[in-house]
Amino acid sequence: MTLGRGCAKYNLMGKNEAAKEISRLRGEINRHNYRYYVLDSPEVPDAEYDRLLRRLEELEAAFPGLVTPDSPTQRVGARPAAAFGTIKHTIPMISLANALSRDEALDFDARVKKILGLAPEEKVDYVGEPKMDGLAVELVYEDGVLVRGSTRGDGEVGEDVTQNLRTVRSIPLRLTGAFPKLLEARGEVFLPLDAFRKLNREREERGEALFANPRNAAAGSIRQLDPKVTAGRPLDIFCYGVGVVQGATPSTHLETLELLKRSGLKINPFVKLLHGIEAAIDYHDQMEARRDSLDYELDGAVLKVNSLEQQRRLGVITRSPRWAIAYKFAPKQEMTRVIRIEVGVGRTGALTPVAILEPVFVGGVTIERATLHNLDEVERKDVRVGDTVIVQRAGDVIPEVLEVIMAKRPVGAEPFRMPSVCPVCGSVVDRVKAIHYCTGGLSCPAQLKESIRHFASKRAIDIEGLGDRHVEQFVDAGLVKDVADIYSKLKPESLKILDKWKEKSISNLLEAIEKSKRPSLERLIFALGIKGVGEHMARVLARRFGSVERLMEAGEEELLGVHEVGPETARSVVDFFRERRNIRVIEKLKAAGVVFPKEEGAPASGPLTGKVFLFTGSLSSFTRDEAKELVESLGGSCASSVGKKVDFVVAGEEAGSKYAKAKELGLSIISEDEFKSMVGR
Ligand code: IVH
């Protein structure tokens, strides 16, 4: 990034001119945000959007006085909140009573009619809404500006998570259209299933505890102390109601939803006006049938009386309204028995215990296996062969064992033990935190197969048509011994002699292999299969280093200076490139014609190249993250602890123990002003 030069460029501009341009850019970016995140119909490609945002960032950097809290650049609250404050809801956030069957839904309707004095054959107008399984929040907009955001909490008082909610892309920081003067919007924040799976995959790679379901992941993300972590999770929201509204008087629930929508808030597209309870029950059934095709978790349909006047007459009892009901779907949890526990070996050698189950129908599909994740999880839940367990289809894909019904445990059931040698290759098993690893590396056929599958997969190098069965066949035939062999050993002559390979399928495969020789840098880094480097981390490393060669040269300290890289990932990257076998594979890949790209824009070098900075104390012109990003943009890196490799210690106000230690080591200590002149600010 060219922050320094950018500022100089914009300094030539007058403040008035800049203010005009900033306002134009904000308007345009907000419009694109709305089209992208709310309407789901973007008007411009991502690159153009990025360009607009970058230009706004540069202008705001040149004219800090023009930065306002509702600017689209302020989505990521820079400073982590020490702890959450509390916010009292003006109107309590109550919850819903449940209906678990058609009969209970009919009872609800009968009660509504009785209180409203309607005859049994009369029809009530309901609004049907999907019941999202996420986290309820309230967003307070004063004069169209988002001023507060809170969780539901106990209904009366919630946590102040304003900074985190500001990072949710579909929550506008400023309302649009003829919004009311005061609007307290309520809705459900959730994590789409794709993002949930990805997050858990990354956590599994890092050996971290997994989120049991998307709801926990959403709640955990909103309660993060560091808004940057929240910002990295693509949370979304559907609004379904309001607290206090001043400046608008809707008379039906549907009008309330329309008001929210007109103001720029996101409403679920499946909201529907329903005439009578039979239509409402049909709606529930249709939504249930649709449940698995959606990219978010639903646990039911909410039926709400449409007329607000009728709602007032119906009132509220024991913290739930008489005018609405959550008509739940069939549970995604069922009971079954563990027949045995198998242990699978993954790409990184991680051993995963899997419960083999008596087949059971859960939320529409039969499941026979459920992951137990790792030994810690098995021990925590104390799952044993013969146990009766509750299984859940979390996030709709990987079924997992939730808990054991202890009362049903057979006499003599033995605790599960992890094997001491790899069940596939017999190598010794090593334990790192919660995860057991086979130490056989790529000499273990299971690891080799998984690493090839990973390399060739859609999100990595993407070799279309190189399926699991083929990988199995090539490895078992001894044809492919590492990922580079895909390019050098799979030839018409060698494939012809294998079972099931005909001329056409051979030429299709070879064509796909040829096509895969020009990957993007981030996919290439991801494909290498470095422990702890998922898709997101691969992107971070690609942006920072610009080439595999530069990444290979990076030491642990330099890697640790990159925002988001923790000690385990830094160590794992260094270890990966220290391994001679990996270097050989990289050389083989290059020799076979795979292009290792150099990414433009990444600072291969800059005025601070090779220089390591450490920040201590509080800075007045930057947040820590901004200072770090600035150093990185100029080619330098940042350390998190004092050590001999640190070139400059930047001491802010109230610098503490790090300052003392730096002095002791005789490191070069500079003030914030000196740092600023060094980076041209
Ligand atoms: S209305 C008085 N509508 O379900 C009405 N809630 O048990 C209060 N939820 O806390 C809520 N989707 O977290 C409503 N379309 C929807 C909803 C919904 C999900 C959640 C919400 C609430 C809980 C009610």
What would you note in describing this structure?
The chain is an alpha+beta fold and 681 residues long. The protein folds into five domains: 86-328, D-amino Acid Aminotransferase, Chain A, domain 1; 333-427 and 431-435, Beta Barrel (OB fold (Dihydrolipoamide Acetyltransferase, E2P)); 440-515, DNA polymerase, domain 1; 521-591, DNA polymerase, domain 1, CATH 1.10.150; 612-678, Rossmann fold (3-Layer(aba) Sandwich), CATH 3.40.50.10190. The chain has 26 helices and 24 strands. It has a five-stranded mixed beta sheet. Strands 16-15-14-17-18 form a five-stranded antiparallel beta sheet. The chain has a four-stranded antiparallel beta sheet with strand order 5-4-7-8. Strand 23, helix 25 and strand 24 (668-671) form a beta-alpha-beta unit. The radius of gyration is 29 Å and the shape is globular. The model is unreliable at 1-8 and 77-82 (pLDDT under 50).
